[in-house]
# Entry
Amino acid sequence: MPLGERGGWERSESKYCGVETDFDDDVPSLLSFNISTGGFDYVLAPLMNPSYRPSLVDADVKDTQVLPVAGSDLVLTPSQWSSHVVGKISSWIDLDSEDEVLRMDSETTLKQEIAWATHLSLQACLLPTPKRSSCANYARCVNQILQGLSNMQLWLRIPLVKSDGDSMDVNSEGLNDSWELWNSFRLLCEHDSKLSVALDVLSTLPSEPSLERWLGEPVRAAIISTDSFLTNARGYPCLSKRHQKLITGFFDHAVQIVISGKSLHNLQRANTSSTVASSENNTGGLQKHPLRSYLDYVAYLYQKMEPLPEQERIELGYRDFLQSPLQPLMDNLEAQTYETFERDSIKYIQYQRAVAKALVDRVPDEKASTLTTVLMVVGAGRGPLVRASLQAAEETGRKLKVYAVEKNPNAVVTLHNLVRMEGWEAVVTIISCDMRYWNAPEKADILVSELLGSFGDNELSPECLDGAERFLKEDGISIPSSYTSFIQPVTTSKIHNDIKSHKDLVHFETAYVVKLHSIARLAPTQPVFTFTHPNFSTKGDNQRYKKLQFKIPSEAGSALVHGFAGYFDAVLYKDVHLGIEPSTATPNMFSWFPIFFPLRKPVYVQPDSPIQVHFWRCRGSTKVWYEWCVASPTQSPMHNTNGRSYWVGL
# Structure
């Protein structure tokens, strides 16, 4: 049975827990014991008798040989095979052995077992851990197999270890960072999206920075050995605080848990008062399974997770989903887009605070009843900034005259209805015009705009405000007054594979708006471009160039950079800001997802080796675009030269 339903629908993939078993040619009994009796959702079971070796089969009977698989395909229904069995490829295989007989046996057996698993319509098969760090032949054979697979996933078993130079028996060559083993293997398999990871979680864990690298990798399962569990005061299995944090993090990243090993806690059948799991999980004969108490503990960890906040649940469908950024000057937004942004009350609260402070600074208390402030909302949309500005005037007791400038004729219809419905006719004048070409009848004291993109300037706020500042007084106030873009290097196998699936250059040279989830942030953010308003300089140039250098902490280990996550932070007025840069992000604001700049070829970076990246903001007569490249530790191609793949139209 699933680990629990509390919050289960939002973490549906991770609510299933499996158990690793030995070879058994009576598969129905194996399932009955582990699923019906034990309460597990599926078995991770060998498909072939472990004593089988192709080289030992008599040549005379090879043509009539029956493979020693775990029972006929008819012993279960296709849906049972698919939902209750993950195949476990024979652990003895060693495709890079110096022993040619063993190597050939391994290659033959691997292909036979995968072919049988495909015949059974299994969803996944577990590949054994490479026996050595040099695993080229193993990866070659797996890559050949991957080319022929359509639906089945292959999970490569990798021990979760990382030492800082101490000897550690990860494999026969004493590799001290198992991420290196995984990285080497997946590079040889060309980042195939059907190849993922099953991590062996051991009793000791690497450092936090080392563990965080795996958040950006395609981890499908975490296999927890029973000897990784501690014993609580009542004699039941439990996990250390660090293990608990790791497992709950896995739950949030759709990673399934598999219990492996023999019971090390000699428990008699538990009574309902002393077990951590709910009472219905401990009735009848369910507790007879030797690993039941381990399953109960994993279920307990799952059930005590906090449900996702409402906003997170709304955004679930957008996690790691690639969206093209808006083209606000070329395209008119649709009503649904406006509605989504208008629901973000936090953003408009911040704008109202900024306008209120500007009004108080602009008009002293003694002139509040006589002096009228001219405020222009440029890019008024359907009116949320007009409303926020009028509420700020009411809050501060200041008199306001508002011009609402909007180029989208459809939004202007809504604005007119809003003004009439709210009785704002005497205060608000609606202008149906592109702000860059409007001839204002008077100059503004305050210019309010909401033209920011995920990267600050990527929706052409600088160009729009350059055109609008013609009608701002010399001592006028712009809200926002400045904004800065930020980037950081990230690992994100899922997004990389999604982009790669398009099989063209254009998608690798496009910046995407994306709700980043399955990513590892490899270094703190750094600022890129800053724009300040008002900018009355006659030599104003919105082209920019920045060279940045990032360093991955040594304790994290090596990593693969798939691209750069981008954010912004804006100063609306004085100490009022809003933004999505992770360290200063405005809480509970959802109008902007981060932006992602991909790399055509991921860059391998060793610890303490600097990542040098160059970013340009370029402008032509009809468009603005970004170009980017990595200069070290290896040189990447220039991305998006002349805006050939991605640009924003002026």
Observations:
- The longest strand covers residues 559-573.
- The domain at 335-450 is CATH 3.40.50.150 (Rossmann fold).
- The CA atoms of residues 357 and 573 lie 8 Å apart.
